[in-house]
Amino acid sequence: MEPLDLLECSPPLMREPLDAERAAGVARVFKALGDPVRLRILSIVASRAGGEVCVCDITGAFELSQPTISHHLKVLKDVGLVTSERRASWVYYRLVPETLGELSALLDVPAPV
Amino acid sequence: MEPLDLLECSPPLMREPLDAERAAGVARVFKALGDPVRLRILSIVASRAGGEVCVCDITGAFELSQPTISHHLKVLKDVGLVTSERRASWVYYRLVPETLGELSALLDVPAPV
DNA sequence: CGTCGATTTCGATGGCTGTCTATACGGAGA
DNA sequence: TCTCCGTATAGACAGCCATCGAAATCGACG
User: Whole-model pTM above 0.85?
Assistant: First the structure.
């Protein structure tokens, strides 16, 4: 599943109606963010100083099974919000700030009028 | 359903891990945004000059039944992304820029480092 | 007061999603 | 090579969601 190139060249924000294709792409990312567990996972990754988080650090923060965490990480990865890298036995996840930045710009409302 | 007061006082952004309660509240809004039709509806409302859109204007832009559009509008309204006002026979929807602004701030990543 | 048009609500249905258990994979070390 | 540990995948199940048609509601207007 391609990591959502649809976001690549985002028109400033909600100044003009999204066409169906772009909307579908953006919706994929928002859908990924629409789960409390994934939001918390993302915030853990984003707030980590070094920028990297080991999976084992994430599973420890939840009372969910390890496969469930792995599933959520895959969802976040599929939409381009995080990347992963294996080193030794551990897999480290890292934020993709560009994707978040695109979303933030898309939602940014300049002024009430 | 309360229009998500959880967002009211948003800590800057993803600087510290979201607690479960806040994550649940924010996830509700993102889940609402995680549908292509709702995204397009929202962009139609947001991009409209006067700031107001009649339901009839929205239904015309989709090949969906009118009740379906109404359902999506209710979802957007329940999470505080839009408000509605009835005038005469028509109901007009209007953007709530504060909610979008909160989300935008939440996702905003200051700098890669 | 009755009708009409616009919108919402209701009930049902098919598909998607979050979660689990069990299993497989991949690297490290003995 | 064998085993252990960390992680990913597969399959299954329950609950939620998008959608629809039908019916109810709500204003306006005779």
Answer: yes
